[in-house]
Amino acid sequence: MTSGAERGAGAPAPRSADVARVAGVSRKTVSRVLNNEPYVSDEARRRVLAAAEKLGYRLNHAARALASGRTRSIGVVALGTAGYGTASLLVHIEHAVRDAGYALRIVNTPDGGPDGIAGALESLLEQGVDGIVVSEPIVEGKVQVRPDVPVLFIGAPPAFTATRTVTVGVGAHDLARAATEHLLDLGHATVHHLAGPRRWYATRDRIEGWQAALAARGAHEPPLLNGDWSAASGYAAGRALASDTSVTAVFAAGDEMAIGLIHALREAGRRVPQDISVVGFDGNPVCAYVSPPLTTARQPFEAAAREGIRLLVHTIEQPDTDPPPASDPPVELIVRGSTAPPPPLPR
Amino acid sequence: MTSGAERGAGAPAPRSADVARVAGVSRKTVSRVLNNEPYVSDEARRRVLAAAEKLGYRLNHAARALASGRTRSIGVVALGTAGYGTASLLVHIEHAVRDAGYALRIVNTPDGGPDGIAGALESLLEQGVDGIVVSEPIVEGKVQVRPDVPVLFIGAPPAFTATRTVTVGVGAHDLARAATEHLLDLGHATVHHLAGPRRWYATRDRIEGWQAALAARGAHEPPLLNGDWSAASGYAAGRALASDTSVTAVFAAGDEMAIGLIHALREAGRRVPQDISVVGFDGNPVCAYVSPPLTTARQPFEAAAREGIRLLVHTIEQPDTDPPPASDPPVELIVRGSTAPPPPLPR
DNA sequence: TTGAAAGCGCTAACAT
DNA sequence: ATGTTAGCGCTTTCAA
C-alpha cells in the first residue's frame, strides 16, 4: 500500500531477474545499480530502482555472499555479562558497524576463556564474516583458531594470531594512572587497588597503571584486593578492608565494585570520603547519583569503538594501504564527591 | 597442529566435495552427516567426520542458506541504550538463541520509533533470518513492513503484523502492581509513579499496574512524573518533588531513575525511607549496594528470554503444531531499605 | 543406505 | 554503458 510492494501471500519473493525483466534491462545491470557500481546510465538506474520498489524486491544476502565471497558483516566476540562497561562498548560497536554499512553477528563467551573464544571464532567464521571484533579478552591460554579475516582487538594486544590484526586501546593504563595520581595529589600516602579477575587484560592494564603512578611518586605498593567486577565482590573486599584504618584511599577497577566497596565501608562506620576516598572506573552515568557521587575514570567506549571499526573496515576493504594511525582517546577523570584529602591523623 | 587442520596459507578453503573425496563417499552423504540426517551408516559417518577434521573443513553457511532457504539464524531488533534492563535481556536472548543452535544477528534502534523498527526489520529480512525478536517496542506509529518469518515480541503485544507472531510477557503489570501494593501495605496513603517515556509499551504496562493497585485500594491517583529511564531524569523528577511534603512514596519505573530520584530527595533534605519511600524496577544487582539499598521489582529477563526463544524456535521449526503454552514468570519484589512506613505526621 | 543431477540468487569475468 | 556466461558451495529432488 505504502511502498507499492504488494504480492500475494503465497507468491515467491521476487528475484533480481524479475526486477531486470520489469525494468527492461539485464540482471547484471540490476546488480550494478544495487551495488552502486559505475557505468550505469541515470535512466537505467531510475528504471531499476522503480522496478525494485514496485515489486517489493529484497536482495538475497546469502546469494550475494556465495557469489562474491564477502558478506558485508562483522562478527563480535562479546565477553558479555550485563555490566555497564561491556554493554556500553557493544552498543557503540553496533552503531559504528552499522554506520560503516555492515551487519552485525554476535557470539557471547561469558567465561571468556581460550576455548570459549575459539568456539566463538569458529562459529563466526562458519557464518562467513568479513571481520571480527574481540573486546577485552582473557590473558591466559592459547586460542587454537587462526581466522583468515582481519581481527580487531579493543583494549588489548592481539590475543591470538590471524591473517591481519588491528588493535585500538581504551587508554586504560593512563586512566588508571590518572585515577591513582588524583588520590596521591590529594595527599594520600598510598592507594590500594581493588582489581578485577587477573585473567582479563583489562585487569592487568589497570594494575600496571596503578603501579606506575605509585612508583613515580615513590609510594608504597600495598597488596592487591581481588574482585570479579560485581558490586557484591566490591562489598566483600570492603568488609575485609574496613577494619584497617591505615587504608585511606582505594582505586577500584570498576564502578560497580566501587559502589559495593563504599557500601561495606560505610556499614562498618568508615566515612567516604572523610575517612577513605574511593575512585571507580568506567564512567557509568549512574555514578553521579549514588552517595557519595563517585569519582570515576571514564572509559572512551564510543571513541574506541568508532576508531576500531574504522580501522577494521579499512583493513577489510583496502588491505594494501596502511590505515591512518589511530589517535589515542583522551584520558578523562570525573572528579566527584567520593574523594578528598586523607583524615588529619593517619594512625 | 592440534586438530590436524593444516593447509598452506594461500590454499583455498576445503569444500564438501573435498571431504567427500577424502572420505570416499558422495557429496550428498557428507551433507547428510553434517545435518544429522538419517540413513547414513556408522562407517560412512565416521569416515566423513574424520575427513572433515583432517582437512579443517568448515561449512559454508551462505551456500547452505542459498540452497535450503534457511539460515539457522535469528535476528534481534534491540532498543539499545546501555541501560541494565535492555542489556541484560539481550545477554539472555543471546544465550537462549545459541542454546537452540541458532546464530544471532542484531540491529539496534536507539530511538525505537516505527521507522527505525521498519528499517531494522528490512535489514534483518535481507540478511535472511529464520525468525525475529523484538523486545519492548514503542507504542505509537505504524510499522510498514510485514515480515514473512515468525516474530517474537518480548514484554509487549504484537506491534505490527507478521506471518506468525508469538509473545511472551515479563509480568510487568503484576510487578508494578506488587511494587505499589508493597508501599500501600506499609501504610502510605497513596503512591506516586515516576514513569518512563510514554511511547514505550513497558512504560504503559507499569503505569497500568500501578493504577490497578491504587484503584483496588481506593487510593487517590496522583499525577504522573516523567522520566526517560536515565538516572539524570530521575534526579530532575526528584528535585521537582522534594518540596512537596505530602509525597511519601514513589514507585519508579526503573532502577537508574530511582537512584537519581533518591539522590535529589536527599540533597533537598528529605530522608529515604524515613520521609519518603522509593521502589525501583528491573532488579539491577547494584541496587543492593546503594544507600539506602533499593527495594526493587525484579524483571524475569532470563526466564522471558528462554521461554520466548523456545516459542519462537518452535514456531520456526514446527509451524503446524501448537507450542506448549508459556508459563507466566514469577513476580518477585526484592524488599530492601528504601521503603518503610510513612512518617507519623503526614501533613 | 547411497548417489547423480539440478538448481538456490547472485556476482565475476569477459564479452560487446 | 550494457549484456552473456559460468560458477560460488551447498541442499534438494529423484533414482538406484
UniProtKB/TrEMBL annotation, chains A, B:
| Location of region: Disordered | 317-347
SMART domains per record: HTH_LACI
Keywords assigned: DNA-binding, Transcription, Transcription regulation
Report which superkingdom the organism of origin falls in: Bacteria
Q: Which PROSITE patterns match?
A: HTH_LACI_2
Name the CDD domains on file. Answer: HTH_LacI, PBP1_LacI
The HTH lacI-type domain is annotated at 14-68
Taken from the record, one Pfam family name reads LacI
Q: Which GO terms describe its molecular function?
A: DNA-binding transcription factor activity; transcription cis-regulatory region binding
Any idea what this protein is called? LacI family DNA-binding transcriptional regulator
* Species name: Streptomyces guryensis
Give the classification, highest ranks.
Bacteria, Bacillati, Actinomycetota, Actinomycetes, Kitasatosporales
